[in-house]
Write a structure and sequence with these properties.
The protein is an alpha+beta fold and about 375 residues long. The chain has 3 domains: about 80 residues, no CATH class; about 110 residues, Beta Barrel (Butyryl-CoA Dehydrogenase, subunit A, domain 2), CATH 2.40.110.10; about 130 residues, Butyryl-CoA Dehydrogenase, subunit A, domain 3 (Up-down Bundle). It is built from 13 helices and 7 strands. It has a 4-stranded antiparallel beta sheet with strand order 2-3-7-6, with no helix packed on it. The protein has a 3-stranded mixed beta sheet with strand order 1-4-5. The longest helix is centred in the C-terminal third of the chain and has 26 residues. The two termini are about 40 Å apart. The relative contact order is 0.09.
Length: about 375
């Protein structure tokens, strides 16, 4: 059950702190602005809401976390700069990390230490069992060699949570065994970070090359060759992200359709269908949150991701159309950027085709 009192406290914090942030940064949402906002949130105790209190969190349940994230989104606050570190890397460290690694959580929470996540590779995106990046052990040292791609916020990150193969697969095949997870600083000799320019003109993603990078074994998160367990426990925390995105998108649809009213007659049917689908998306997320809270996660999680990606794209398209000539002539840059960025919604965190296959085979029981 959502902690309404805590959500109200957050609303009060935003009422006082957001004007101060905007006085310093205006409507900026670049990395520097987002990092500053994360520091402000952390000082108020609003970063890592689901973290245990021992690590500076509030130990809230998923329903309250989603409600707080929705409040943040509805307020117009920017996203925190280190959300990958806060939402996924920290989970791995708290569950599997050494005492030394856990001491970094304070900096991850405040945004002083920014992490990215290096799982995907060329030829090993959704199929992590095929990854080829190697972490070869020589006594108390590891040698990391390989390549990661589509690494979100790799350009700004200080370090990367890397999944690598520490024991070769038999006959060069694919295997979930023999993988290890490492915390790798990105300023070491042999590390090259190459930005990837997107259709929006931004550099949210990067390609990272590891050329015989020397690392102490103390960078291991969890035991050697047990990286698959570490990775899966880390990715399990991403289900909360899907629920948060769903709640934010429902709120965004409601806001867009009221802000742009009265709607042109030619767009009202389209807007109504979008509103209905957004409400269904929100209800699916609420059901999934209840299932997770009861310890019985069901297939609704995969449905939420599939539904969110489609609603998010349709929202961007509708807002672009409603902006009219301003969007086409560059006088509404945020609207145009949102449209371009929404192309990734049906790719990120599992393509639409992959999600449909999962639902068909694992939920509906259809033949392969």
């Amino acid at each position: 059950m959502t902690d309404a009192a805590l959500v109200a406290q957050l609303r009060d914090f935003l009422r006082d702190e957001l004007p101060r942030f905007h006085a310093d940064f205006g409507d900026r949402t670049d990395f520097a602005a987002c990092r500053d906002w994360q520091r402000r949130l952390d000082r108020g105790g609003w970063v890592g809401l689901n973290w245990p209190t021992d690590y500076g969190g509030r130990d809230v349940d998923l329903a309250t976390q989603v409600a707080c994230e929705t409040e943040l989104s509805s307020s117009g606050a920017p996203q925190i700069a280190g959300f990958i570190g806060v939402n996924t890397v920290a989970a791995a460290i708290m569950a599997w990390g050494s005492a030394e690694q856990k001491s970094m959580l304070v900096k991850i929470r405040s945004g002083e230490l920014i992490y990215c996540q290096g799982f995907s590779e060329p030829g090993a995106g959704s199929d992590l069992a095929s990854l080829r990046t190697r972490a070869e052990r020589h006594g108390d040292e590891l040698t990391l060699t390989g390549q990661k791609v589509w690494t979100s916020h790799g350009v700004e990150a200080d370090a990367c949570l890397v999944l690598a193969r520490s024991t070769p697969a038999q006959q060069g095949g694919r295997s979930h065994r023999g993988l290890s997870v490492l915390l790798v600083p990105l300023d070491l000799p042999g590390v090259t970070v190459t930005p990837i320019r997107q259709i929006t003109g931004q550099f949210e993603f990067a390609e990272i090359f590891f050329d015989s990078v020397k690392l102490p074994t103390s960078v291991l998160v969890g035991p050697l060759d047990q990286g698959w367990k570490v990775a899966m426990s880390t990715l399990a925390h991403e289900r909360a992200a899907a629920m948060i995105l769903a709640a934010r998108t429902r709120a965004a649809v409601r806001s867009a359709l009221t802000t742009n009213s009265p709607l042109p007659l030619a767009k009202r049917d389209e807007a109504l269908r979008l509103l209905v689908d957004a409400e269904v998306l929100g209800l699916l997320a609420e059901r999934s949150i209840a299932e997770i809270g009861a310890g019985q996660p069901g297939p609704a999680q995969s449905v939420v991701k599939l539904a969110w990606s489609r609603v998010d794209q349709r929202l961007a398209e509708l807002v672009f159309d409603l902006a009219g000539p301003a969007a086409l002539t560059g006088r509404a840059p945020k609207v145009t950027e949102a449209l371009l960025f929404s192309r990734s919604s049906t790719i990120a965190a599992g393509t639409t085709e992959v999600m449909q296959t999962i639902l068909g085979e694992q939920v509906l029981g259809l033949p392969r």
